[in-house]
Amino acid sequence: MKTIRTYEEAVSYMETLPLFTKKNDLSEVSRMLDLLGHPEDGFRLIHVAGTNGKGSTCAFLEAIFRQAGFKTGLFTSPHLIRINERIRVQNREIPDDAFAEALAKVLQVQKVHMQTGGKRLTWFETLFVLSLCYFEKSGIDLLVCETGLGGRLDATNTIRKADGVVITSVSLDHTQYLGDTVEKIAWEKAGIIRLGAPVIYCAKDPRSARVIAEAAHEKHAEPIGLTPDLYTVTERKHASLQVGLTKKDGNRLSLQVPFAAEYQAENACLAALCALRLGAKEETIRSGIAHTEWPGRMQEIRPDVYVDGAHNPDAALRLNSEIRRIGRNGRVWLLTAIVSDKNHSEIVRSLCSGIDFAGVVVTSVGGDRQLGAQVLAEEFRAAGLKRIEIEPDVEKAYQLALREKKDNPLICTGSLYLAGEILAMEKRLRSGLPHLGSAG
Predict the structure, then answer these.
(1) pLDDT tens string 97-124
(2) What element of type H or E holds 423?
């Protein structure tokens, strides 16, 4: 087993593990946690699953409980620029040396695990176990933990207890792994429900809501559903929303959500309901939500240039309404890339529904998962778009889109890989490193 001494060696080792591979049986991670003494038993925990919005909901929850005085941990996926983003204490990324130290510990224990018949952990399993080691050493009070894929069979579901469970909106995504109906996917997500732990869930779709409520009752867990009638956007500003949430007692809680996208109202309200149920004060909830940071979700990275990580049909449909809102007479430019194992034709239809884009720049991201730019361009032609520019190189595609958009808004979306690439380019620009030439 390789000895890890530096961050560079740690990242190099992680790169030897396949990102997308068959999952191990959960007993492999459970056995590793046994050998480590179950580090997650030392702090409170909120477990979050869902198709869309779970990362944002986690960010809201972490900000609320940090505001309440807890020393918080946050485990999310995917990352946009670097792997450290996925593991945070007090909203600060795990330092490079701590990452290497935690991985070295995991590999040491994994050696014992494999000597007794255990299997080598996958990429995500390794990262999850590594994070728990870091959170334990950091002495956190509470962890907000996002599932990777699904819920029931996700590595994060090896934790033995949770104080609260949140399930965000459920729709069709990863159907090859989770099932081909909303009900089947909801059942997989509901697999994280713990005995007696309250379940706060998005109840706008009666199909998923019914499955989640039934699973909660089976586990003697209190179901708390967020239906669309319980919250309203009362005011919209350039970069924030004012949202009114009806609480269990019938009174209203006013929230300032620091994002322009209306879909964040739902995520903020789920986090607020969870925090209320776990005893947080209203003022703490208001302050935590108002100060939440979460990049890559309808983020305005320069005037009239937005990055959004929408990467499935439901997320694309939500983004569609935001594009209509910011578009000037519908004249919006789109920069997009979608990975091959997504329902790319449906994502394109959702993005284009009712919108006559001024133009689209199509590119490619995702390594082994990338969808050829030419293939994606044909999807947009089939959706009725006429002006389509093809540029497989992401940086050149971004330059092209910035030039072509002129005075119109530009939306960059279709994949979190694309969002990460663009945010990294902008970071290099701000730091004075080699950048985007004459694009402006």
Answers:
(1) 999 999 999 999 999 999 999 999 999 9
(2) helix 416-431
Ramachandran area for residue 298 (φ above 0: left; ψ -120 to 50: alpha; else beta): left
Total domains, the chain: 2
End of a domain among 202, 225, 248? 225
Distance, in Å, from the CA atom of 349 to the CA atom of 326, rounded to the nearest integer, reads 19
Q: Is the distance from CB of 434 to CB of 425 less than 8 angstroms?
A: no
Picking from 225, 243, 259, the residue at the C-terminal end of a domain is 225
In a domain, 54, yes or no: yes
Ordered DSSP codes for 129-151: HHHHHHHHHHT-SEEEEE-SSSS
Residue 302's φ and ψ, nearest 5 degrees, are -160, 165
User: DSSP secondary structure string, 186-227?
Assistant: HHHHGGG--TT--EEEE-SSHHHHHHHHHHHHHTT--EEEE-
Q: Is the overall model pTM greater than 0.90, yes or no?
A: yes
Domain span holding position 342:
299-431
CA distances from 413 to 19, 84, 208 (A): 22, 23, 26
